[in-house]
Amino acid sequence: MAVIETIDLTKKYGAFTALDNFNLSIEEGEIFGFIGPNGAGKTTTIRILATLLAPTSGKAFVAGNDVSKDPRAIKKILGYMPDDFGVYDGMRLREYLDFFGAAYRIPGRERKSIIDDVLQLTDLTSKADEYVSAFSRGMKQRCCLAKTLIHNPTVLLLDEPASGLDPRARIEMKELLKTLSGMGKTILVSSHILSELGDMSTKIGIIERGKLLASGNVKDILAGIRQALELRIEAIEGGDAVEAALKSTPGIAGYERSGGDFHVRTNMGREEMAELHARIVRDGARLLFFGEEQGSLEDLFLTVTKGGV
Ligand SMILES: Nc1ncnc2c1ncn2[C@@H]1O[C@H](COP(=O)(O)OP(=O)(O)O)[C@@H](O)[C@H]1O
Ligand SMILES: [Mg+2]
Fold first, then answer.
1. C-beta separation of 305 from 207 below 8 A
2. Which residue of 41, 107, 140, 263 has the fewest C-beta atoms within 10 A of its own C-beta?
3. Which of ligand 1's atoms lies nearest the C-alpha of 36?
4. What separation in Å is there between the alpha carbon of 211 and the centre of ligand 2?
């Protein structure tokens, strides 16, 4: 069963349509990368799912609960981290978490151990008694996530959690999301930068101008876009042998060569590729790489958002 589902979800701000008959479905346990350029409608979708914004028409469900009919049931199981998270001045981290624990009506005696767990999970235990306002952006982000986890939500909506983070903080955020996923939580995480999410998401959805352009795993989306496979061959020796083999192999639509590096367009099957590989090696080339080109995620994004799908 889908944990998150929208059916013809539409949101208008006055005359402007921010979400246009938007249909999204996210299964239990996914880390779903919700990707689209600025202004695409990501935050609008997330705020509707978090029951903070009413749709103009259509429906949205979280764990089977209708956002319009059962917001309280959703709030219990949902952790929402906004993109414009603020932290409170003059509060130490433990006080900050205790404040939110109290807001969720977690009894005082349980709160301490829950806060300890959440601190450990977000790797902030050593900072528990420091002032939140003095933290780096990456640490503030983790604080905010810690706060989001305090009522042990099963569904997480994280709006651009990696934005503005340095590469190291971003890796830590990814690791944390993987850990949370391992705990069985369903996670929707948004970004306007595809490469930020592509390698950590189990599925991605691409949104542009309020419409879902593609949804599924990255490989399937790529396969749907590409007519022909791109093969890359990198020879550290014997580039001419590679070129000779390419010229005499049927099923090669074209190639570009730069030194020992080849980009080949082909519709060959796996058997024929293996045969080509064997032949090149037999003919004396020394290969560093022979395989399908992993189209960069940015390329995929550009292709999809140009209306390629
Ligand atoms: N309160 C609002 N009033 C008018 N327009 C809005 C409002 N909130 C968002 N929008 C517009 O709706 C579109 C989608 O915004 P948003 O959901 O924030 O996109 P994203 O999060 O993908 O950047 C944008 O064009 C934005 O300017
Ligand atoms: Mg946004």
1. no
2. 107
3. 22
4. 15
